[in-house]
Design brief:
- By secondary structure, the chain is an alpha+beta fold.
- The protein has 2 domains: 138 residues, Fructose-1,6-Bisphosphatase, Chain A, domain 1 (2-Layer Sandwich); 93 residues, 3-Layer(aba) Sandwich (D-Maltodextrin-Binding Protein, domain 2), CATH 3.40.190.
- The protein contains 6 helices and 13 strands.
- The strands form 2 sheets. It has an 8-stranded mixed β-sheet with strand order 2-1-3-4-5-6-7-8, sandwiched between helices.
- A hairpin with a 2-residue loop joins strand 4 and strand 5.
- The longest helix is centred in the first third of the chain and has 27 residues.
- The protein is globular, with a radius of gyration of 17 Å.
- The N and C termini lie far apart (44 Å).
Length: 246
């Protein structure tokens, strides 16, 4: 039986609570697509509202933890060794255009290390989560990275420009958090992208690690312009040889 920590249970509760409003907002965005004003301002408010719900929920029992969030930035509280890292809507452009591929991302960094993470796709009702030394899960079912060993059998995710000329099968989904969750679940064999923010990938880092994948070294003190390479263990050597040429 998978026993979750109080911190992860708190993250799940916060993600579920924020998702209810996001699902309603997403339905409204679809209606706004055909309006004269368009959905841009509405989506900005959806981001802010979802973030507030998450922060309020997390702060109920962990009010001293510091916070790093996309909309608010860094909130320095009494406990600076424990930091909630929040992206209320990763895949905002998808959300903006009524494309049902976005996620809530919450991670906990403790003493310089990501120790737990949650990526929740509210439209598909897929909850990916992981804790240090406890594995990665999707809706309570254990997940692991893929075992493919040949690049031509793989599919990789990338949304940036740095690797646009790499000669491997790729997909662009517009949601880095779900790209990393899909690597952890074995749906993608790897994900690589440049110029990401820490809140885009923090939860994905622990998910991929606990699912048995490989990651490049990430300096968690540098919260912007991050390059990420997350792959299954069985294909990492071959794909890294190609990535290192860029």
């Amino acid at each position: 039986m998978n026993v979750l920590s109080s911190n992860l249970n708190l993250m799940i509760k916060a993600g579920e609570k924020a998702s209810k409003k996001l699902i309603r907002d997403f339905g409204e965005v679809e209606n706004l697509q055909v309006s004269i004003k368009g959905p841009t301002d509405f989506v900005s408010n959806a981001d802010i509202n979802a973030e507030k719900i998450i922060i309020d929920e997390l702060s109920k029992s962990k009010k001293n933890f510091s916070i790093l969030s996309e909309e608010t930035g860094y909130i320095k509280n009494k406990d600076q060794k424990n930091i909630w890292i929040i992206d209320p809507i990763d895949g905002t452009s998808n959300f903006l255009h009524g494309i049902p591929h976005f996620a809530i991302s919450i991670a906990l960094q403790s003493h310089g290390e990501i120790i737990s993470g949650l990526i929740f796709d509210p439209i598909k009702n897929e909850m990916f989560y992981a804790e240090k030394n406890n594995g990665s899960f999707l809706n309570n079912k254990r997940i692991r990275v893929s075992k493919k060993k040949e690049i031509n059998e793989c599919i990789f995710a990338t949304n940036g420009q740095k690797y646009k000329d790499i000669n491997v099968p790729t997909r662009k989904t517009g949601c880095a958090a779900l790209d990393m969750a899909y690597v952890a679940a074995g749906r993608f064999d790897g994900f690589f992208q440049e110029n990401l923010n820490l809140w885009d990938i923090a939860a994905g880092i622990i998910l991929v690690k606990e699912a048995g994948g490989n990651l490049n070294s990430i300096d968690l003190l540098n919260r912007e312009a991050l390059d990420i390479r997350a792959t299954s263990s069985s294909i990492s050597e071959k794909i890294y040889k190609k990535l290192n040429k860029f």
